[in-house]
Amino acid sequence: MVFIAHLTQGQDIHFSQFDHNPIFQNPGNVGLFDGDYRFHANYRDQWRSVTVPFQTLSISAEAKNVYKNLSVGLFLMNDVVGDGKFRTIEVVPSVAYAIKLTADSAHVIRPAIQMGLNYRQFDADAFQFDNQWNGVFFDPTLPTNEVFQTERKSNFTLGLGASYEYIKSPRKRLVAGVGLFNINRPNQGFFGETINRERRLNAFARAHYEIGFDWDIIPSLQMNFQGTYGEVIIGSQARYILVDRLGDYKAFYLGAYLRGGDAGYLMAGMDYQNWWGGISYDLNFSKLYVASRARGGLELSVRYIIKSVKKRDIFYRVCPDYI
Predict the structure, then answer these.
(1) CA 97, 312, 102, 72: dihedral to nearest 10 degrees?
(2) What are the tens digits of pLDDT across the range 267-310?
(3) Cα→Cα distances 174→142, 177, 223, Å
(4) How far, CA to CA in Å, does 257 sit from each of 181, 204, 221, 222?
(5) What backbone torsions phi and psi does residue 283 show, to the nearest 5 degrees?
(6) Dist CA 259 CA 219 (whole Å)
């Protein structure tokens, strides 16, 4: 693991709070929660200290056991980068099926599939070209003499994944999974040249372990490999349970993570009933350190889980008239 971390060369669109962006991480995470419906929102603002910030917004929704052990989810992402506002929009539905390996549901495997649409565009009018230099200053009114065949590109993407869950008790559990994305390697070329999107392999593992009456430790690992690029993140959160009784639940989280060869980051969060809110900040120490001055990216996450209240069957007794 140490050697792999030192060989990391770059990163694709990613989130630091990967444990709180489950469908993006792996479609096998669909339905892997306690409740009936789950909603996530994540926002990331990166490299604001260096250039035009890279901004990524994602929203996901899941419905658990819509038909027997079948769960469905939908992931939407909007990513905008650079001077030309290069935008990537993805709409990706997923389906997962829970296979219980034991009668008590302590061991569960969730194979899953996701199929979606990837849309990309840029704004050529936002660029500056040498033809617009009049010899004294840059004149945006001058023609660029550049002809673009298209500024938009759409393609279809396919992914597969699976997760494994072991539950010993509510506060002792293990989750791990593997996923393969862009299996069909869609063409991303804008100008006639075929540029296939590289397949991305994701593997992750996360454990919950009770270390005290009110304290839990939650170590996690994630690896992404795509073409010549790689990413390895390892770290842990500590959870302190403030209240957990009579339907009232509050807990505080604090964590630290290392993204090999690129950055380290701190995060904090809180559970409040069925809500979660989290914040993290990346500290950059890659070769971009001189320009970034160690400032990487801010990330926010929000989650809400709905647990349906099951109606109780009420039985009435008819009293005889003579009573």
Answers:
(1) 10
(2) 999 999 999 999 999 888 877 767 777 677 899 999 999 998 65
(3) 61, 10, 17
(4) 24, 14, 9, 11
(5) -110, 110
(6) 14
**pLDDT band for position 137 (cuts 50, 70, 90):** confident
List the one residue out of 195, 190, 260, 251 whose CA is nearest residue 218: 251
Interval 101-125 mean pLDDT = 92
Residue 280 φ then ψ, to 5°: -145, 160
What is the C-alpha to C-alpha distance for residues 133 and 130, in angstroms, rounded to an integer?
Answer: 5
Nearest to 64 by CA among 108, 85, 95: 95
Q: Say which residues have a Cβ less than 8 Å from residue 144's Cβ, sequence separation at least 6.
A: 124, 127, 129, 131, 132
Q: Could you say which DSSP state residue 135 is in? A: S
- List, in order of start, the domains of the chain with CATH numbers: 2-306 (2.40.160.40)
Compute the distance between CA of residue 288 and CA of residue 296 in angstroms, rounded to an integer.
10
pLDDT of residue 323: 59
**DSSP letter assigned to residue 317:** -
Please state, rounded to an integer, the average pLDDT across all residues of the chain: 88
Q: What is the pLDDT of residues 67-93, one digit of tens each?
A: 999 999 999 999 998 888 889 999 999
Which phi and psi (to 5°) does residue 188 adopt?
-105, 5
